[in-house]
Every structure is written in structure tokens, then in C-alpha cells.
Amino acid sequence: MTLLETTIIQLRNALAADLGDAIALMLENLSVSPQIKVVVLQANRYHRAKSNRGAGLITADEFNTTCTQICSALLDFLPEIKESDISLPSSDPQKAALLGLPTAQSSPLQTLLAGLRVDWKTLPINELHLVNSNRFTEIRTLRRALRDRNEAEQAFQFYFVNACQMQKPESFAKRVILEIMARMDEEERKAILIPPELKSGRFGELPFDFMGLEDSKVALAKYLQAHYGFNERIEPVEDFLRACVLKTLDYKYITFIFSIHASKWEPFLPEYLAWIIQTFTKIGEDHKLPTFLFFFPVFAHNLHETPGNLQKEVADAIVQLGKNENTFATVISPLLPVPNEEIADWFSTELGEADQSKVEDLLLLTLQRDKAALARLDKFLSTKKADMYDVEALQKEVFEFAQKQF
User: Fold this and answer.
1) Residues in CB range of 24: below 8 A, 6 or more apart
2) Model pTM?
3) Tell me, what's the pLDDT at 255?
């Protein structure tokens, strides 16, 4: 029995057993084929109907009728599948080469991306495109604060972003740094000191010691000592920090990203953060210094929906800190899921693809990439908003596809 015959039998049996599972299997088996568009159309139709049924917008009979129509359409489609449409595992490179397929499987998303009206070869896509999906209100707030503080020549600036992990607050911080770098030429970029974790996106936690404020001050000093390779022993801690700052005069920008997790929150942390802000800004009064940008992604699970008591306590404490130190600190709280129209706007302005229906198809397919993502599909269909975690998964596919075109 040929690969084609075996695949058709598997797909036919799956359609007879469970439509949702069958659609997932078809997406997997046809991921490198232009024919994937047929399956995506029916997959999106199925998930919309399922969401509408769960919301009580259609009856059980109407849902069953739609499923029957989808199943019939996919059964009619099976004879159109050719062996060259079938994805092959990367462990079978000889057969893949024989059929003219890549040895590593493409994803259904990348097959759909090939159908966009985008001039990939001239597109100036870079690492910024992995994190710069529009958050109109939030990014304007931060850019305005950045402009105002730069005009006021504030050497030390502090930005806090409260969000659930699914809204990627660390990426928001990374985006701002990359946007600053994008304004510089290669020579100017030598004058910006960036976090070593900027490429991976896995940023270290705020240095502190659970034993209390004074021990946390020492923890910060030890971090900077290692960061700058500064071995002198200077006391008190405030004088040591001043000495560290004065080692950076050759730079234009110094950037830090420190994560704060609600699960590790201690009651003294607001006082500690206030001490950090006040200590550094006082140093800035006495010297002509580079611009120091401190970003604090604050992770609080489910903050934008139903936060627990601890998550709310942490977010409220950070907001209050921002009010108390508003001259030097800005708080964005909370980051919210991204509206569909902002995602479509990103495709239009960054890639030149203005067809919103194609963008929604891409996002719906992104939300079918695995079981965890599939659990968030109904929420997107009802709210027309997606978690940044899923938006960035789509942006990553775009980035990787663009890189392959050169």
C-alpha cells in the first residue's frame, strides 16, 4: 500500500470517528501542500460553529448540520490529495527528496504565508518583528514618557509593566530597547549597553534577598559588581552604586530588564524598589551621565481577567509605587490581550498585506497548533482578542518564513 493510500484511509476513518480530531490530522498531514487552504477554511468554519454552539448562538441541530456539511466537503476533497501533498517526517530524507519536499516538515502556517501578497525579498524584516505587534495605547504611553524624560535630560528612568505571563510583558520591554536601537546606525549602537539576555528573551529576576531590605541592597550591589566586573570594595552601598554608574560614561544608553514574579513577592519590595529609584536618581543630579533605562516586567497570573489576591496585591503595589515616584517611573497595568484589528494592522503596516480575512485565517490556524493553543481558540472567536503569547507565535512563523526567502 502506498503512502497516499494509507494516508487517505487514515483521514477517512478519522472523519468517521471525530471531526475535530480529523481536522487536526489533516492539518498535520498536509502541512507542506498548497491544498492546506481547503482544510484551513473548513477548520475555521468548524471552530467558529463550535464556539457559537458553546455560547448558545446556534442550536444543537444547527451545529450538527454545519458539522455534516464540513465532513462532506472534506470527504469530497480526499480524492484531490496527491502524494506530493503529504508531509513527510524529517527522518525520511530520501523519500522527501524524491517527491521534491523539504526534509524537515514545513508548518501549515508557513504554507499559508506563501500565499500572502508580500514582497518577502525586499521586506526589511528583523528581530524587532518578533515583538512589535501593535499595542496602540500602551506603546504610546511609554513612548510619550520616554520622550518627556529625554527632553528633561533625566539620566535614570524606570518602567514597570504589570501583566499575566500570556501577555508577554518582557517582550514589551524588549520591544522598546529594539526600537531605540533601530534608530541608530551601526556605529551608534556601540554606545548602547543592552542586557545579555535580550536575544533569548529570558531575563533575570530583580536582585533581592528575602531576608529584607538591607540584604537586598547588598544583592543589587553584588549583581552590578558582576555585571561591570568591578572588584573594588566601597561602602556604603549607595557609594558603591555611584562608582558603578561612573564606569559607564562612554555609553549613551544603559538598559536593564529585571523580572518580578508575584509568586516570589515580599512585603518589603515596594520600599526596596523606591530605594532603587531614589538612590539612582540622586546620583543623576550630580553628574552628566548616559541614559539608564530600567524595565521591570511584573508577572501576575491572570491579572487581566480574574487575578488572585496575591496577584492583585502585587499589581496594586506597583501602581502605587508609580504614583509615588511618577517623576521618574511609569507603570503600565495591566497589559491586555491584543484586538484582532491591531494584529491585522501589523500585517498591513509591517508586511503590506491588507486582507484581514487572510490574517484571521493565519491567527485561527496558530490557535490550532497544539492542544494548549486550541483551548484558547474559543476565547478568541468570542472576544476577537488574542493573547500576545499566540500573536508572537504567529510573528515567529512570519520571521522564519521571511528568513527562508533570501
Assistant:
1) 368
2) 0.82
3) 95
